[in-house]
Amino acid sequence: MGDGEPRVPTAIAVTSADLALPPQDERTLPAAVLQDVGRRPLEQVLTELQTLVDQCGHVIVVCSQAVPASVERRLHTVRALLETDRIALFRPPLPPLGIAVLARQLRQLASCDLGAGVLASAGRLLTHYIHAGALLGSVARLDRVPVDLKAHARSWVPGSQFGVVAHPEPQLVRIGPEAALSGPEFGTSLLVAKGQLPSDWVTGTLAPSWRVQGLRETALPAESADWWGTGRLTEFCAYLPDLSVLYQLVTSVRQRACHWCGIDVIGDRCVFCSATPPVYDGGGGGAAGSAPERALGHRRDPALGRRRERRALTG
Known about the structure:
The chain is of the alpha/beta class.
């Protein structure tokens, strides 16, 4: 992994301390915690982010779609006032624990020889390899995953529990002897965050069925109850833990320069300036294939892309 010229690592920021997970390995960089962004005076937040940009060159803010609207507005306001394209605001469709895991993966990769644009783009890529869900005591207020009327009705039955996967594909089952959730087809570790619901089914049934290679526990993020619509839950997330695998996945993808801001990126969109490649007549601009393939930049040679991906995951 690159031993090029010394550089200041890109800052990976999160919007609350409980999204800054403990280091996965000795190379994992600390997260910059933007605490109470929506409540602190604007001048304080401006100064904090300006300092991060001055120190690190670029800042990637990873935040949940469950953050209050005031937080999102404040981040966009600060970015506009600073008149900079060196701050990337990344809000992937992951539950809060998945957000924390993804931010830690980016913190791992920030220690490598990856440019800021490639690192920010890697967030979109790695999102496809995160399996995030929860064990819920009720789905009556769950609006992140399709819930049918039967499941809603069963939510009112005392003692009912539901296994839910929100990403990469929605799944919902009522917990019983035959209950099962489809999981990753590659080796992962499982992170479990216990809330107001026992985690026995997750650790004793789900983890073995997903053949996880390691299991750790952490505190439940404060945003999880709002995201899942109930505090009676245990959240879980399966992910790729090894830096070497993450690095190989990212570096196997073709890089290109963003036509707008000039930074090197992977995939179809620059996370810093939000520009997408221009489409020319007859140039094959239409994106083909699945969402992971498009994010991986495998449109021109999908077979090659899949071979590289398989090598990275099987080592």
